[in-house]
Design a protein that fits this description.
alpha/beta; Rossmann fold; 2 domains; seven-stranded parallel β-sheet; 15 helices; about 45% helix; globular
Length: about 400
């Protein structure tokens, strides 16, 4: 089949960008012809994929994305495919990979009336409506159930159009089974990073520092007692602008505790092996892949309850879930507990046991089966054949 994936911007370390890489590459390995539409591609090209860069420009993001959608529509009219899969919300999709939150829910509950009069609001609302409004027909692949009720509330989306995917963490995140091998690797990586034996490496991994709550972590470090803060080193790894947070750390007097890697790192499995804990106090997080990645690597994990994958922490017993509504003092106490509790060994072993659950690694296979089924159904509708999705 001919398949087209659409993504506004590609870079190696973003969450939906990583998912695009896995899905599109797996489709190519199954023998499908895969085309990727994008505005900007940062990073190496992927084997087996055709990348088409949209020649569009605009002063604002919402106008840029509108022009991108129009450009893709026109290109597909000249050179059609069997199925169009979007990693971002836009008109013209057969399938949407729902990695983002519900825009309309945030616009109604977190923004004022004047915001909802802006062109930006109307543009993003229209793009979301094109996917989710009742009768639209776009099939929706969800990575958690966090925002499904919001989409159904605001758009009346039919429940049968939602297709829940299992997690899709990469197997190299899981800790090796042999305890001695784990200890040896940990020691080697920590030596390479220059970490002392008594230092505690805390990991904040994920692109989008504002959304994922980095400010909350920095405030918590400031509140640590001296005996603890002197031992902690925070690694911030992800694609984003670090400067506002560098300045914040400087104002708080904790800049010596924080190291930023704003272009990401390609040795995340090593960092997980060397770490002592991971943290995700997100304001808004549909899933939170790092939650599972940290746990299966044997790291105690702390996340806020609004993260889509936070329930895995409680089910497995692999760390702490900070409740919402969020309270900074509660989170600060939870983070101190994460790094000092006598339960740390039990949390570590619980995460390693969780790594044996094979469904944690199966997102790509399940998604590809659905994509092929949707393409067959669309072809059947064109040819007058009963749909296999019926």
């Amino acid at each position: 089949m001919k398949l087209a994936f659409c993504i506004f911007k590609y870079f190696p370390f973003g969450g939906i960008q990583r998912d695009l890489r896995k899905l599109a590459s797996a489709c190519a390995l199954r023998g499908h012809a895969v085309r990727v539409y994008t505005i900007r591609w940062n990073g190496p090209m992927l084997d087996g994929l055709e990348v088409r860069m949209a020649s569009v420009k605009a002063m604002t993001n919402h106008t840029l994305y509108e022009r991108f959608a129009d450009w893709v529509r026109d290109d597909l009219q000249r050179d059609p495919v069997d199925l169009v899969i979007g990693m971002n919300k836009m008109p013209g999709l057969d399938v949407y990979y729902a990695g983002d939150s519900c825009f309309e829910e945030k616009a109604q509950n977190q923004r004022g009336v004047l915001y909802r009069l802006t062109p930006r609001y109307r543009s993003f609302r229209d793009a979301e409506s094109a996917v989710f409004t009742a009768g639209a027909g776009t099939q929706i692949l969800t990575i958690s159930d966090t925002y499904t009720p919001h989409f159904r509330h605001f758009y009346g989306t039919e429940p049968e159009r939602f297709h829940r995917l299992p997690p899709g963490i990469e197997r190299d995140r899981a800790a090796v089974s042999d305890t001695a091998d784990r200890s040896r690797r940990r020691a080697e990586v920590r030596s390479r990073l220059g970490l002392l034996d008594d230092q505690l490496l805390l990991l904040f991994i994920g692109s989008g520092f504002i959304k994922k709550g980095l400010d909350r972590v920095l405030l918590a470090l400031k509140a640590f007692p001296e005996e603890l803060s002197s031992r902690v080193r925070l690694y911030v790894v992800g694609k984003d602008n670090p400067e506002p947070f560098r300045r914040m750390a400087l104002r708080l007097g904790i800049s010596s505790l924080v190291q930023f890697f704003p272009d990401g790192r390609d040795d995340v499995p090593d960092l997980l092996a060397a770490g002592d804990g991971a943290v995700l106090p997100a304001y808004d997080e549909n899933a939170g892949m790092v939650i599972l990645e940290a746990m299966v690597a044997g790291l105690p994990m702390l996340a806020t309850a609004n993260c889509g994958y936070a329930h895995y922490i409680e089910e497995a017993g692999g760390g702490i879930v900070t409740p919402v509504p969020f309270q900074q003092p509660t989170f600060e106490a939870d983070l101190q507990t994460l790094l000092t509790s006598d339960l740390r060994g039990a949390w570590r072993e619980a995460g390693i046991r969780l790594s044996q659950r094979q469904e944690l690694y199966s997102l790509t296979d399940v998604a590809l089966d659905l994509i092929e089924r949707f393409a067959a159904a669309k072809a059947g509708r064109r040819d007058g054949v009963p749909s296999p999705c019926a």
